[in-house]
User: What shape does this take?
Amino acid sequence: MKRIISLVTVLTFLASTAMAQIVPPKIEGITKGTPAPYDGVLLNMPAAAKILVEEKYSASEYELRLGFHLEEQAARFRKEIDLLNVTIDNMATTNQLVLDLRDKEITRLQDLVLRESNDYSTLWASGGIVVGVAATIAMFFLVQEVSQ
Assistant: This one.
């Protein structure tokens, strides 16, 4: 049963497409009073000329619009690139200033360290004398306490 239904459907489809006629579009010039050869819209010469001109110039208009939008996008990208280049230059300048400041601080600290003497013998001697005197006084009081 299914085979019969599918066969009838296919045959019906093939028969309907075989009977259909494809009519190409035509523009035909006629004079006043002459019957038209087909059903459709009849255009006078100015209307037909307008359609033909619009078709001819629509491609030019499209190209102009496309060119305009491409130039507009290119200008937007150039602006963004210029802004990024300015940012890069600014960051490079800031970085260089920070590096110069760091180098000056390192030089200043090195000079400060080199100016100071590494000879601490006077401090050691002074410290030894202070500790010795303190120890002597402490021993004196300790001996005095023990003897009493």
